[in-house]
Amino acid sequence: MEKILISACLLGDRVRYNGEIQLCQHPLLKRWQAEGRLVKVCPEVAGGLSVPRPAAEQQPGGRVITQQGVDVTAEFEAGATLAVKLAQQQGIRLALMKARSPSCGSGHVYDGAFQRRLIAGDGVTVSHLRRIGVQLFDETQLDALAAELLRCESGKDPSP
Asked: Are the C-beta atoms of residues 95 and 41 closer than 8 Å to each other?
């Protein structure tokens, strides 16, 4: 059975920077959870950050800085490394990560100015997962993930 790495916040774990719940209640997630497919991770907490914690954004050049100016790049990198190890241990080829997150954002992240402006780019963990060939999706792409899951389980390699 194909497993899916998932941001723990999407399953309702209180791991977001502000401690709020970000539960995604899509029927596909409920089904995949019941099937035992989902392997959850919060890279930021795994990397040693607390809940709640100050908001952080990636800066030009790749550092991750809180709104107060504290560099938390090491914690983000540590969490990304742990997520990659988990994906490798579980043979995971697909991941569902939280959109726009400085760790889990796929395709778009905040610009680092704390003005809620999005730019093209990936979060720290997503960048690491892409390097090992994991296909990334966010909660707005559940239908595409379902199609790719079906393709994987039919014996075809996931599309690049």
From this structure: no
User: What is the per-residue pLDDT across 18-70, written as a single tens digit (0 to 9) for each?
Assistant: 999 989 999 999 999 999 999 999 999 999 999 999 999 999 888 999 999 99
Number of separate domains in the chain: 1
Q: Specify the DSSP class assigned to residue 21.
A: -
State pTM to two decimals: 0.93
Query: Cα separation of 77 and 95, whole Å?
Result: 18
Looking at the domain assignment, is residue 159 inside a domain? Answer: no
* Domain region containing 68: 4-101+122-153
Distance, in Å, from the CA atom of 97 to the CA atom of 99, rounded to the nearest integer, reads: 6
> What Cα–Cα distance (Å) separates residue 15 from each residue in 40, 81, 143?
11, 18, 25
Burial grade of 68 (CB within 10 A; 0-12, 13-18, 19 or more): exposed
